[in-house]
Design a protein that fits this description.
The chain has about 170 residues and is α+β, with helices and mostly antiparallel strands. The chain has five helices and three strands; from the N terminus they run H-H-E-E-E-H-H-H.
Length: about 170
């Protein structure tokens, strides 16, 4: 199983199995990195420009995979736990800790050629992954404590959305 630089588990054998697409890929299959950051890797940008910026890893007719791209990066944007499915409930008006945390499946290391690949995990699954043999693809349900915290936040959201007329508020006083 893949490990962090500190030697703890990341919960997967193959980080690329948890990738849906590269962060630099546009909807029409072009490489945004080669267009916007051409100065960082002129040779790569020139090759992409010659192919009208098409991403070879996104093209099923091409031999490349995500592993082959020197500028691949994948950050999951689905705001739910990749292991148990707990949805995020943000309360931006308080200092409460988020329910979900970004979890790195691989760590950037230019010499070894690894890529940054991240998913979201709830705090409870994140702790289980790093402190035990838990895996991201385990058939897991949200922790009872996580569900309670999510429901508390859901209740706060509903209170915020509630509407009370001025006359009703005045009658309560």
């Amino acid at each position: 199983m893949e490990k962090t630089p500190q030697g703890t588990s990341v919960g997967v054998d193959d980080p690329y199995a948890h990738v849906s697409r590269c962060d630099h890929l546009t909807d029409d299959g072009r490489c945004r990195y080669a267009f916007h950051y051409a100065g960082n890797d002129p040779e790569f940008a020139a090759a992409r420009r010659a192919d009208e910026f098409h991403c070879p890893a996104a093209n099923p007719d091409h031999e490349w995979t995500w592993r082959d791209c020197p500028h691949f990066r994948s950050t999951e944007h689905n705001r739910e736990c990749a292991r148990c499915g707990l949805p995020e409930r943000l309360n931006t008006h308080s200092g409460e800790r988020p329910l979900l945390e970004e979890h790195h499946l691989s760590y950037a290391n230019r010499e070894a050629g690894t890529h940054e690949i991240t998913v979201f995990l709830c705090r409870w699954c994140h702790a289980k992954i790093h402190t035990s043999f838990a895996r991201i693809d385990d058939d897991a349900s949200p922790d009872p404590e996580a569900l309670a915290e999510a429901e508390t936040r859901r209740g706060q959201e509903m209170d915020e959305l509630g509407f009370e007329t001025a006359s009703k508020r005045r009658d309560k006083e």
